[in-house]
């Protein structure tokens, strides 16, 4: 029992000194997708009570990792928003829901940043372009859109027909 306690104490002390010496937790590295290779488009949705702003498509430097999206949502709704769904559709017929916002009520004028931390954005170098296969011109289009919203009163905004039509367009025209 004393050996186990000594081991645990040693582990905790070494962990404490490791943190005290400034060791940083690993952050996955991403680059911003260059628009000449992958064009990120925010859908024009004139009746949507949420606006998508400052959207960026982030490509991971870790093989096999999915891309990540960084954006802000601004409520322009007259009603409080209880939850929302944001979707991303790729011209290669992949994509779907990328965000289910259900953490707290959004009021008119509220801004919510999505995927703002937990990663590091690094500059796009020629070496990274080569590694990610980004030297071939335009490779695809990604459309980011508000798919649905549920208001605090239970009513809703639904752009799922637009979402399905966009996916059908990509299926029909791009493959």
Question: How would you describe this structure to a colleague?
Answer:
With 175 residues, the protein is an alpha+beta fold. It is globular, with a radius of gyration of 21 Å. It starts with a helix and ends with a helix. The protein has one domain. The strands form two sheets. The protein has a five-stranded mixed sheet with strand order 7-4-3-1-8, with no helix packed on it. Strands 2, 5, 6, 9 and 10 form a five-stranded mixed sheet that branches. Helix content is 23%, strand content 39%.
Brief characterization of the structure:
The protein has 175 residues and is of the alpha+beta class.
Alpha carbon gap, first and last residue: 65 Å
The largest β sheet comes out as: 5 strands, mixed
| Contiguous helical run count | 3
Strands of the largest sheet, in order across it?
A: 7-4-3-1-8
Low-pLDDT regions: 1-21
SSE run: HEEEEEEEEHEEH
Number of beta-strand segments: 10
Strand content: 35-45%
Radius of gyration: 21 Å
- Supply the helix-strand structural class: alpha+beta
Share of residues in helices: 10-25%
What is the total domain count? 1
**What would the principal axes of the Cα set say about the shape?**
globular
pLDDT average, as an integer? 84
